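User: New here, any thoughts?
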Amino acid sequence: MWNREGGSLNETLENRLRNLKDSPSWNSRGRFLVLATDSSNGPEQLLAAHICTVLWQVARIVNVVVLIPNQFAYRQLHALSNTKTSADRLNMYTWFPFKLGVCGEIHDVILLDEWVFENNVTFSYNADLYPAKVPKNFMGCPLKIGTVGVDPSVIMAESFTHNDGSTTY
């Protein structure tokens, strides 16, 4: 998905999201899976948080799982090779948009599970990869809503104009 010579990670993600958003089947509430093939630039949690941040800021995507090779579980495919070509496991990260004091901001990501590629491919914890992200209690976070004024779905019951010219609905 991302080639360092082709631009920054942000540019690549934003371009991909713009292309997806133009699709007639676009659904920002869908389930997204992002695979990062290289995390050698720094801590994998920071890369996962960065990817989640871009997806949230550009397209308001919440249901995302970011797969990143575990930095400490590399093995060589061939004994003669000195390059890191495969990982024994992929770490799976996500984030939750509404926590106490955090309203739609990504401060950290959580490790959901590990996808282990030894003998039988398994998950370490068998966690739910797409847990509920929108709680019943928004814990003081503001809720923005909108509507389209199409009768009979939205009907203004009454309004009052004050002496100063302001209107109350």
Summary: The chain has one domain: 4-139.
